[in-house]
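Work through this protein:
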Amino acid sequence: MNSNSNIKKQLDQVAKYLIDLGKSIDEQQIYLALVAQIINWRQEINLSKERLSPLIQGILGGQGTGKTTLCRVLCQLLKIMGYSAVSLSLDDLYKTYLDRQQLQIQEPKLRWRGPPGTHDIQLGIDTLMQIRLGNHHRDQLDNYPQIALPRFDKSLWGGMGDRTAPELVNQPDIVFFEGWFVGVLPIPEDRFPDRFPDRFPDHFHSNSQADLPLIDSPNSLNPSIITGGDSPRERRHQRAFDLSFARYSNQQLQNYLPLWQLVDKLIMLYPKDYRYSLQWRLQAEQSMVASGKPGMDSEQIRDFVQYFWQALPPQLFLTPLIKQPTPVDLILPLDENHNFGKICYPV
């Protein structure tokens, strides 16, 4: 058990790490609260057990929400606190390049990797089961074999991407499993509307234990944002957007349920406005181009982001997850600068 002096040293190291990252005092407190909660969840699942059991911590967030960055920071903070943590992305579970080429012939909607149906679900189940069944007696910790984490290289095949060599890691205490629809559930057919709802919910429950304020009421959303605006090109998008892709994705989500069942806890990164994803993607591409790397133009980026919105419209598949009953345990509301100053519970 850590002495008070060791704990103080760890907290000082945590504070220095977060300060070096440019995190504000409020953000530092949020990160500390998250780390404390994750450690507590891990202790809960090991309570009264003879075997150690790693926590499989899900991180759900749309494009550009900062899932990878959050996982990297949390892994480092947990390391400082004496816990080993690794990250696995839903992207690491993509089907091989050749399999996706065949899939695209069978289902032309799947122009790009990403939506439900483009992943090797069994690979994910096998990997998480290997981690979960890696439960071991405490005196066998040093002798337990390494775990092979799947990895995916998006640069292969001219950017189409393919599997690469797995990463061998020691048995971790915590596994972050992140992705843009990790934990997302299929919805009943009668939930599909003729048009999209045009508002996000007006409030969250805040974490009263941390005395956190309520999230600000979001602005009204214009459904045409998903399908385009008023230009002829955007009107063509709007006419083509008939929810058939979303219905296909909804059917595919059924196949992911056994994978989601292996996730112990789920944290959701929730932008006040889902359209921030487009803004963030544009900013990222502009930075890439400015650094001399190849990138997409604004029209290509819009097509790419809308592709994901059409696969799983946020209002239908993500927004409902902030309300009970939900698999989501905690919500981190995001502003347009990627800041989260609150931890919230589902309504």
